Amino acid sequence: MDLVPALEEPLKKVLGPATAKVMAEHLGLHTVGDLLHHYPRRYEERGQLTHLADLPMDEHVTVVAMVADARLHTFASAKAPRGKGQRLEVTITDGSGRLQLVFFGNGVHKPHKELLPGTRAMFSGKVSVFNRRLQLAHPAYELLRGDSEETVESWAGALIPIYPATAKLESWKIGKAIQTVLPGAQEAVDPLPPALREGRGLVTLPEALLKIHRPHTKADIEDARSRLKWDEAFVLQVALARRRHADAQLPAVARRPGPDGLLTAFDDRLPFTLTEGQRKVSKEIFDDLATEHPMHRLLQGEVGSGKTMVALRAMLATVDAGGQAAMLAPTEVLAQQHHRSVVEMMGELAEGGMLGGAEHATKVVLLTGSMGTAARRQAMLDLATGEAGIVIGTHALIEDKVQFHDLGLVVVDEQHRFGVEQRDALRGKGKQPPHLLVMTATPIPRTVAMTVFGDLETSVLDQLPAGRSPIASHVVPAADKPHFLARAWERVREEVENGHQAYVVCPRIGDEEDDPKKSGRKKSPEDEAEKRPPLAVLDVAGQLAKGPLQGLRVEVLHGRMHPDDKDAVMRRFAAGDTDVLVATTVIEVGVNVPNATAMVIMDADRFGVSQLHQLRGRVGRGSAPGLCLLVTEMPEATAARQRLTAVASTLDGFELSRIDLEQRREGDVLGQAQSGARTSLRVLAVIEDEEVIAEAREEAAAVVAADPELTGLPGLRTALDALLDEEREQYLEKG
User: Is the pTM value of this prediction over 0.70?
Assistant: First the structure.
């Protein structure tokens, strides 16, 4: 977030080229400012130390401990046949446990002199196991010497910052480098407006940097962290607030549906009543559509909460008001599916210009990359003349050649697959920027919505429509209890015998180059599950058709099939001509077959939490109850198994998205577009710091409303520029 020349000073000038090179290559740190914002991961107190008892295997650790004893052994080896080989074994302790350090050969002389019993030091190295005991081989170390005037108490209580480090650069070397540049912190320009900082009792930025790197007490660390969290949250929210402000300045055509048009005709023919939630969200959308600047709204809804119905009513309202609506889907399968369901829901209202079309009817066209030339030309003609009020398609809609008569509303399905460039390209298709509605079925915790989609207003659909059935979910531990898997296939047969259908989902297609199945058992189930390639659709379908599901009509569906074949398979499944569909995650989104009641997910541990929740939403869409079986070979104690247990235990997508977020790093949430370490969240945790983010959003909106160009806040402008190099401002839009 920085600032002025002293902090823009390249590290190679200050620290020397070798250290600067490692910092740039391994930690992404290039300037003095970058280094000052490389905060400690935690702090050790010299007196009470890292629990040696809790050290993680195979990780690079830094521990602070006291030498208990040191012994030099000699031994014979190939290199030193006459018993001249030397090995120094040092045992260190922190009160909670003991750890062995070993040094060999010429490397023993210096530690033999320095690591005497009673010496305290910081040790850094990779934890390994030798003779069933944990050890560090050839660790780097730094002696901790109390200065003579320091009392033992103050020395023991001092806080030692432990920095995120790499094998090439130990924590204390980073610490020394930071001490070198710390005086430069005085020149840090404060991005927070003084009134905000004083009103919230936050310390200044120079003071926060000083306290986080050189704390005297735990209170210092707290002061520094709460201040630095505010910086991160506030600067990010100002960037988003400026984007919302800029969008609000754009002109748009207000779209108000007439009283007796297409929308009324559609509502009159609905066989059911809308849920309270659908009515509320529709009103929010209609209010936005009626304004003179473009709507930017995120519609999140649980799987099956009726988002498509809400989006369709918004599209019909736009057509009523004389505009056209476009719906963008991430895949062809989904575009075709949406087109089919929209045409079915509208009936003769979708037959504009045709015999038998209703009075207010319009034309609903499909546009995808794989369409034949003639069909494609006709669809594009219908769009250009305005004959087609609604178009549903894939990215093919964005191509330069596609022209609209009067594009009024764009609906984007599944935002997280859709980047800002596409949104902007489509926005450019209207005479004025069209209104935008983004739909996602991946529930997003409120704070992430405020952070990632901060430029969109949010509507939430959390009621399921009447008549939807609950879905029972169970974990099937195939390795521990093979008979559970056998029972799973019996359950699938039972569902089919009762007139229903089932999905079997696999992580892989199976026509890839690698050898699909290696038999030979590996050492442990965990090992086995890790080593073998993920199960594949083509293999599993064959085995099921010949084995446990013999006699049932089994078909496959995956992304590399020809679009016509995919569509044919989906149509047969939707019509009930197929009993079991073995598929990859192409069925994850939007596929709607109410008669499908069971789903078996193979190697379920290979999918993410939200993906499993999405997949599970494909069953239980009719009146019969749904069943979802999560098959895994992972042993009970593993994190992967716990994740599956969490998915099986709740149908609440928002709860699952929190679990998902806690298990991943926040960085993944903000997308990959944050190139470099500079913009990623450092002290702000999206879940824990909900209040800070919400308050920062309010403060940011007020600041931007009062001074959109931030002319009176040069420090904030500089911080924004550091967060968003001009071309990277876009990343905030990428989900």
Answer: no
